[in-house]
Structure formats: C-alpha cells, structure tokens
Amino acid sequence: MHQFSMSQLKPGAHIHMIGIGGISMSALAHMLLDFGYQISGSDSKASALTDSLSALGASIQIGQSAENIQNPDLVCYTAAISESNPELRKARTLNIPVIERAELLGALMELYKYPIAVAGTHGKTTTTSMLSLVLLAADTDPTILVGGELPQIGGNFRLGSKNYLPFEACEYVESFLHFKPFLSIITNVEEDHLDYFSDINHIISSFQKFARLTSPNGCIIVCSDDKNLQKVVQNVDKKIIFYGLDDKNTDFTAQNIKINQDGFPEFTIIKQGLPLVDISLRVAGEHNILNSLAVTAAADFLGLPISAVKEGLESFTGTKRRFEHIGTVNGCDIVDDYAHHPTEIKVTLHAAQQMHYNDIWVVFQPHTYSRTKSLLHEFAEALPIADHVIITDVYPARETYDGTIHACDLAALIPGSIYMNDMDAITRYLKQNLQKGDLIITMGAGDVNKIAQKLKETELQ
C-alpha cells in the first residue's frame, strides 16, 4: 500500500479537512495545529468541536462548497464523504493531493517516538483508555486518541509530547493498514464488518498484514486465548508477547481472581510464572481482566513502573457508552452500553449477572443490516442471557434497507422478547414494568441511548 509521508509537505503547509467537525477528524486537526500546520475545514453544522478549532486559529466553513477550496497543499476527507462532494471534486480537478483521514493519521505517526496501536474486533476503546491512564500515571505526557469519551482527559483526545501516542486502529475497510506502530496490541479477531470482509479468513489475513507493520524494534501483544489471533501471528516475524487466562504458557496471566461486592474483579497479575502486582478494577467483567493484562504487557515492554500500571488500571472507571451508568428510575439502575456484536453482548450481560441485580432488562438496537443478517442466530443466542429483551429497529448507519432482514426477524428467534419500534413507547413500557433492584441496559452503537436519557429525565420530573 502506497504511504503518504509528512515529509512531502513543507513546514506550516495548508491542510484542508472535509468533515472537520467529526470526533476523529477534529482530534486530528488539533494534532496538526499543534505541529504548526495551517488548517482549514468544513462541516455540515457548527458544534463545540468546530468552535474549539476556530478558537485555535483554524478557518472553519459551515456548509460544503467548491469555493471552500482555497489552494491548500493537501486535502483530507473522512470515509463518510462521497466522491460527489463538491470540495473533493474541486480538489481532484485542481490536482491537489487528496488523502483519507486514516492515511494522514498514519503519516503523522512518523513524528512520534512510540505510536502504540490497539486493534481487535472488541475492546479497543477500553484497552486504549486503560493504557492511556497508565501512561499518564507514569508521567510520560502522552498524546492520546481514543474512540470514546474518557473522563480523565475530558473527551476523546489529549495533546501531549511527541513521545507516546496510544490510539485505536480500526480494521474496517482495512484503514489500519495505513498505520506505522512501534507497538501493537491485538485483543481478539472475530467475524464482523461483513459488508466489507468476505469471511473470517479475509479478516485474519487483514490483521496479519497489520501485525507486519509493527516496528522491528517493537512488539505485538496478543491474547493467547483467541484461536484466530494465533493464526494471525503464526507467520509474523516480530517479537510476540502473549497474555490470556486459558493458556498456561502465556507470558502474562491472572490468578486469585475473585469478584468483590460491587461486581468488580480483583486479581493478581502473573508475569512468566511470578506474581507482579495485585489489581482491583472499578469496571466489571472477565474481558476487563484480559484488557488489563494486555495493558500490563505493553507497559512492561515499554519499561514503565509497575506502580503506574496499578494506579492507571485502578483509576479506570469506564468510558462513555461502555457500561456507562446513566442514573436511576424507580430504584433501578440505568446503564448504556455500546455492545453491537454478539460476543460483546455476551460479556456485557455476563458481567451484569455478577452485579447482584434482580432482573436484567436489555433494549437492543441492532447496528447495520449486514451485521444483523450475518450474525442473526448469534444475536439470538446472546441476548437471552438477560431476563427481559426488547428489540427495536435496526440502526442503518452507512447502509440502506434492502428488505432482506428486519429487527422482527431477531425478536422472533428469542422466546418472550418484544419488538417495539417507538422509543417513547419503550420508555413508557419500561417505567411501568421495572421493579426496584432491576437493571436496564440500552445496548447498541446507534441512538438507543436516547431511551436511557429519557428514563433518567422522566424520573427527575
């Protein structure tokens, strides 16, 4: 894959960013401003993100038109921008270099000493966030890019020094093949994004290409419990560090695991057979033990003090939309969670089961028709871990409805589940049926979290 390099731009070059108000694009714009580049950009609407960039000197246009292209040295666009976009078409007409956001981020990594990529089908945001807190605890002043809002940094990014750069590496449309990590963490590999990937072998092949991008002086940290990951790294000529709970030959594992009265794991991290540190997490679930092991392995390779590992991991209380506590209604806890894949649903609901609630209610909004169709029976197996299941309409995201799958098809496979297509009606139904001591989880990567907020607001009235 051809790689753009920042060396192709003169110092202080003018970069125009189409879709600059997006959460990932705006963070990238902040980084570029910090390096002294002149930034302009456009978006369909003004927001706090565009306002903050304007305050730092970026030239922001609301609305997109060809006139916004004022002879920049480079144009960057998000994957959501179509080829018919007038600014993109104007740039191509003028033969201005044009690249996608992931490629520009990959080029920017050349300017950092230790870019640390966190990849995998699940767990990227949590693992990146945990690692970021460890790096902060170690006083490394990291620059951070995370896919969710992390309270300790007040959002999804932090500008720091040019040494450590922890970031999420998403496999969708193989955008992570633009990156140049010093160290890579791969949490797991499963079937997902089947609107792009043909099958699991295609996904494994893509992750294998990504693994080979890791610096020869760095390493790849992978979960030994994951059979697909073992296939990913078996022919990759890099230093591999394994972590896991099942494999006795792994480098980092956990022992003495117990769940405290709050439902959170407490355990001892073991490095190559010897106790390393005792950890008491403030987030639930066995998957977070695995995420902690991945972060510990990375910190150990980077030579960070074990005290920073303990402080960072134990200060992590979650990110926005990852088992996020929204409030209470009728004596019931309201939680919102981003889980939109059967494996994520299973681990989230199993974690909830350990938290001593009476009944667990889940309102699930499937995310994309392609994922719902390809993993329909896996969803039907995962969701009944909850005591009560409500299914609402598919959130289409980037897709259009083709008539081959509907949320009703999923509800029909789950005995006792209810299909409801109106969020206000779902909110009323829950208020009428929740009992004190229950847990309600709104679940999905779309806008199902509106129900959690409605429930909280009605309680306040």
UniProtKB/TrEMBL annotation:
Stored Pfam families: Mur_ligase, Mur_ligase_C, Mur_ligase_M
Enzyme class, spelled out: ligase
Domain Mur ligase C-terminal: 321-446
Database matches in InterPro entries: Mur-like_cat_sf (IPR036565), Mur_ligase_C (IPR004101), Mur_ligase_C_dom_sf (IPR036615), Mur_ligase_cen (IPR013221), Mur_ligase_N (IPR000713), MurCDEF_pg_biosynth (IPR050061), UDP-N-AcMur_Ala_ligase_MurC (IPR005758)
Coiled coil spans: none
Record-level GO cellular component terms: cytoplasm
Top-level taxon in the UniProt lineage: Bacteria
Mur ligase central domain sequence ranges: 118-299
Gene Ontology BP, a term: regulation of cell shape
Catalytic reaction(s) noted: UDP-N-acetyl-alpha-D-muramate + L-alanine + ATP = UDP-N-acetyl-alpha-D-muramoyl-L-alanine + ADP + phosphate + H(+)
Compartments, as annotated in UniProt: Cytoplasm
Keywords, comma-separated and alphabetical: ATP-binding, Cell cycle, Cell division, Cell shape, Cell wall biogenesis/degradation, Cytoplasm, Ligase, Nucleotide-binding, Peptidoglycan synthesis
GO terms of molecular function: ATP binding; UDP-N-acetylmuramate-L-alanine ligase activity
Biological pathway: Cell wall biogenesis; peptidoglycan biosynthesis
Enzyme Commission numbers on file: 6.3.2.8
Domain named Mur ligase N-terminal catalytic: residues: 14-112
Predominant location: cytoplasm
Binding-site positions, ATP: G120, T121, H122, G123, K124, T125, T126
NCBIfam families associated with the record: murC (TIGR01082)
General function of this protein: Cell wall formation.
Family: Belongs to the MurCDEF family.
Protein name, entry field: UDP-N-acetylmuramate--L-alanine ligase
Species annotation: Ructibacterium gallinarum
Species lineage: Bacteria, Bacillati, Bacillota, Clostridia, Eubacteriales
